[in-house]
Amino acid sequence: MPHLYAIAIGSNRPHGRHGRPQQVVEAAIARLDEEFGLFDAAPIVLNPAHGPAGRDFANSVALVESDLQPPELLNRLKAIERDFGRRPGRRWGPRVLDLDIALWSGGAFRSRRLTVPHPQLAKRSFVLDPLAAIAPNWKIGPLAVRHLAARLARKPPRG
User: Fold this and answer.
1) Which residue of the set 95, 146, 151, 154 is catalytic?
2) Is 151 designated active site?
């Protein structure tokens, strides 16, 4: 039986073929549709960069169906990143494409390389807001995505 995955998508560097970060995210969504079967995708939003990434990000979330288990799906996502020109680099640095497993229908998963739900998910409006647009009732622990997004929106900005 296929699993439903929420894939967080981000880009803050242009790509030679796909163009600006927003078009990179659009191309990544199309690629996820080709490889896995797209269930839904959130609108693309522009967000300020966090940490040393420098440039603003284009972000979205796609819901895909796959028979793969989380480690195998992660390997496929990393291969897509490489196909888009992502190279190993410093953490939080600029990137052509970033694909992360935010959630999956199998519940919690933990290995040396991967933790699902993503450990920082409840603190990331750039993932929660798009996810709330397409899967507002998906539970993360006792709370639905829409509740976590609303809670995060009420927090005062850090300065």
Assistant:
1) 95
2) no
- Into how many domains does the chain fold? 1
Q: Token pair for residue 133?
A: 């647009």
- Residue 110 annotated in active site: no
Q: Which of 31, 98, 124, 129 is catalytic?
A: 98
Task: Give alpha helix (H) positions in the chain.
Answer: 21-36, 70-83, 125-134, 145-154
Query: Is 86 one of the catalytic residues?
Result: yes
How far from 26 is each of 3, 4, 58, 140, CA to CA, in Å?
23, 20, 10, 26
The answer to whether the CB of 12 falls within 8 A of the CB of 45 is no
Q: Which of 39-43, 49-53, 108-112, 152-156 has the lowest mean pLDDT?
A: 49-53
pLDDT, residue 153, reads 87
* 98 is known as an active-site residue: yes
pTM across the whole model? 0.89
Q: Which domain holds residue 30?
A: 3-154
Asked, for residue 159, whether it belongs to a domain, the answer is no
Look at residue 34 and tell me whether its pLDDT is greater than 60. Answer: yes
Phi/psi of residue 9, each to 5°? -125, 135
- Of 13, 86, 124, 129, the active-site residue reads 86
For residue 16, what is the domain's CATH number?
A: 3.30.70.560
Residues of the chain above pLDDT 70, percent: 88
